[in-house]
Amino acid sequence: MTDKGLLITKVLELYPVKAEYVRAILDSHKIDEDGTIQAADLLNFFKTLYLDDTLRNDDNININKLRSEVEVFELQIKNNENKIKISDLALILPPKERLFLRFISFCRKQITSVEFFELLLKYASSKTGILTYDQLYQMVKDFAAEIGSHEEHCSDCVRYILALFNADEHAHLDIFDFPRLFNIEGNFLKKLKPHGRFSAVDFDNIIRHYDRDGNGTIDAGGELMALIADVLEYADIRVNGELLFEMVDAALDLCEKSKLQKLDREDLKIILTQLPKQRMS
Fold it and tell me: What pLDDT is attached to residue 259?
């Protein structure tokens, strides 16, 4: 554990770790791509603790000691790098919060849109773009098995995730919730050509980007879903998960190689020009 991790440990030892405090510092926008959290964000969280009336009236909390530790922590920030490893913070939490934090840290590592849709298709059982409670539980369970965590903590982890990242308070995550949980790279098409027509070189780059297995085509599945999602976003067309699946089927219908469940360079030209028009008609 790093020096900062030890310092965090000292501060957290001064009060009972409660789930609501853990969730308070796990705003997905504050966890960076390299799996760290800004020390200033964590410091602000600690500062609020000794201003919390419920804590100040708790005989088990040494507010003065907490305040002094925060001052030391503040000095530490000024003299060192301003980042703290999420993995260090996870090590000092109770098991269920530890699993939750490590899963969130895993989700916040940047992935391509193809990798995301492959993950979604692995766990989603219907063409809705939704992860139900049970499907999300299976995802967390598989992750817990990989890191040697107990399954008994998975249900709490799923409840925390739904409480934090489900905007509509349904018992599932939909396609509009996913960007809040997963750190998905930006739209490749917008990066490649913010405005104007795509060139022949652009088409080659697009195929290369979405062709994850390197077979020279964009295959049905995660590759094609990522492409269609980016094409629709590029055209400023917003669709839910169910409509996205419909547009993937429409894309295959437009192209000659649909029976082979893969698209080549010529098919890509058709997709980029005709699919958005089909959606808007």
Answer: 56
For residue 36, the 8-state DSSP code is E
Q: Which two tokens stand for residue 165?
A: 């990242």
Q: Which of 20, 177, 191 is nearest to 107 (CA)?
A: 177
Distance CA 186, CA 197 (A): 19
Among 197, 220, 224, residue whose Cα is nearest residue 209? 224
Q: Splitting the chain (281 residues) into consecutive groups of 10 residues, what average pLDDT does each group show? A: 44 45 50 61 59 53 57 56 59 70 82 93 89 95 91 88 78 88 90 82 91 88 93 89 90 70 84 68 47
Q: Provide the residue type at 61 as one letter.
A: I
What pairs with residue 219 in β-bridges? 262
Strand partners, 263: 218
Other C-beta atoms closer than 10 Å to the C-beta of 177 total 20
Give the DSSP letter string of 51-115: T-HHHHT-TT--HHHHHHHHHHHHHHHHHS-SEEEHHHHHHTS-HHHHHHHHHHHHHTS-B-HHH
- What does the alpha-carbon distance between residue 222 and residue 268 come to, in Å, rounded to a whole number? 16
Q: How far apart are CA 220 and CA 249, in angstroms?
A: 9
- DSSP β-bridge partners for residue 131: 173
| Crossing angle for the helix pair 113-123 and 222-234, to the nearest 10 degrees | 120
What string of DSSP letters covers 188-220?
HHHHH-SSS---HHHHHHHHHHH-TT-SSSEET
Tell me if the pTM is above 0.85: no
